[in-house]
Inverse folding.
């Protein structure tokens, strides 16, 4: 197997499939990244992955290269794992990396092989990739295309590869279907040993492409829904955490993704729902996904909401350009878009930090894993080496990522460090009773002020 693109997706899959016993090559055009991975240096934070990387490098099942010729000769299956970011001039997905890796690989294929898409793409991409292959690969090689979307959750990605809750195959031939079953043989065997089943959905290209973006759109809608309910709870004195628990007991709804807070971020949900809408408009069915515009708007408003809460708690007035937070010292706990990750792409926490600084606040941030990437994105903030350092002299504390370190922090000890005992729990993850018991004024998202 060859995995084209050694970012978060490709690296995780390459390492985990080597762990399942396959011979794997990871390929990337970035020679520096390839050198680091070949040396056992994982450039991302993902729990458990670095140990697997080093073990499989040592076993000889895993290696990395920058050569298309190398992987064309080596692999029977080529996984497309490159990025599909939002275009700079529109909401649509940029497929240039997909096009480049397919057109650079295809001319070197000399025997029958499967090009297997993993990247999240607009519906219709697999058909387009098939035309690229027909144009650039030697006809006698008989190269085929299939699509099998990924469902990785950052922080749980190793488990998601080794023990997926389902796999989806988009194929056009029995040969491609049989190859996909062979690709996942190790996954199925592990499930059998552990007395589990892995559901398999076999269908066409379009359905396989739609599965990932449809799932992300649904999850984004669920998050924005509970955040909209948080606004109603604040207006009426309700408690959104109790509301979420009550509706989550309904098995038609379920409790997951019903935690109100600063909203979703990261490299998938925001850009995927925008690209989904853009593609629907291209296909003439944009009205059917128009609700996703409001999902996106609700999410964006959560970040402004935190700034408004800061002004209210500190008695600062608002003018035509928003609140004046001049000189206010704000400690931000958490800069990654979620816990157990170092990913700061479209991070709500960093968005809040920027807004606070534009309003005049002095921001000091701390995160267990995201400090280096955060400094590259928001260099004007101050960055502390610990929770204690971040809180020293703070007028207010904002918890914006739900790390366990923050949930288990001692509010009584931290109270001695700050200038004023005020906390905004932007993740609804800390215990308000403990914090108020230590003399803090607490505000959660969609919860009564304490």
């Amino acid at each position: 197997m060859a995995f084209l693109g050694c970012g978060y997706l490709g690296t995780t899959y390459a390492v985990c499939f080597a762990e399942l016993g396959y011979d794997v090559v990871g390929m990337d055009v970035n020679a520096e990244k390839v050198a680091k991975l070949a040396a056992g240096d994982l450039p991302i934070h993902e729990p458990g992955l670095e140990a697997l990387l080093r073990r499989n490098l040592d076993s000889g099942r895993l290696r990395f290269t920058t050569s298309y010729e190398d992987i064309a000769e080596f692999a029977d299956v080529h996984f497309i794992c490159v990025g599909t970011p939002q275009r700079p001039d529109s909401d649509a997905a940029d497929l240039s990396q997909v096009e480049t890796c397919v057109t650079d690989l295809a001319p070197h294929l000399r025997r029958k092989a499967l090009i297997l898409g993993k990247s999240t793409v607009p519906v219709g991409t697999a058909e387009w990739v098939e035309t690229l292959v027909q144009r650039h690969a030697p006809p006698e090689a008989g190269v085929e295309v299939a699509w099998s979307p990924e469902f990785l959750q950052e922080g749980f990605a190793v488990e998601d590869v080794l023990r997926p809750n389902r796999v989806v195959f988009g194929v056009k031939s029995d040969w491609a279907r049989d190859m996909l079953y062979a690709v996942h043989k190790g996954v199925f065997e592990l499930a059998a040993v552990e007395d589990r089943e892995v559901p398999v959905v076999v269908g066409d290209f379009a359905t396989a492409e739609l599965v990932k973006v449809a799932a992300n759109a649904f999850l984004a809608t669920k998050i924005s829904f509970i955040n909209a309910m948080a606004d109603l709870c604040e207006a009426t004195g309700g408690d959104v955490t109790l509301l979420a628990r009550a509706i989550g007991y309904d098995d038609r709804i379920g409790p997951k993704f019903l935690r109100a807070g600063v909203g979703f971020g990261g490299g998938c949900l925001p850009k995927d729902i925008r690209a989904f809408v853009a593609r629907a408009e291209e296909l003439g069915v944009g009205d059917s996904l128009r609700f996703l515009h409001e999902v996106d708007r609700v999410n964006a408003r959560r970040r402004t909401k935190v700034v408004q809460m800061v002004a209210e708690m500190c008695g600062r007035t608002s003018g035509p350009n928003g609140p004046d937070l001049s000189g206010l010292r704000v400690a931000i706990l958490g800069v990654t878009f979620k816990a157990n990750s170092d990913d700061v792409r479209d991070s709500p926490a960093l968005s809040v930090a920027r807004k606070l600084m534009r309003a005049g606040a002095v921001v000091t941030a701390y995160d267990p894993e995201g400090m280096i990437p955060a400094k590259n994105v928001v260099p004007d903030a101050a960055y502390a080496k610990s929770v204690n350092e971040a809180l020293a002299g703070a007028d207010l504390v904002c918890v914006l990522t739900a790390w366990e370190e923050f949930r288990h922090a001692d509010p009584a000890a931290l109270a001695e460090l700050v200038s004023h005992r005020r906390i905004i729990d932007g993740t609804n993850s800390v215990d308000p009773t403990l914090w108020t018991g230590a003399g803090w004024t607490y505000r959660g998202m969609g919860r009564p002020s304490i």
Q: What stands out?
A: The chain has a mean pLDDT of 96. The CA atoms of residues 31 and 364 lie 35 Å apart. DSSP finds 19 helices and 16 strands in the chain.
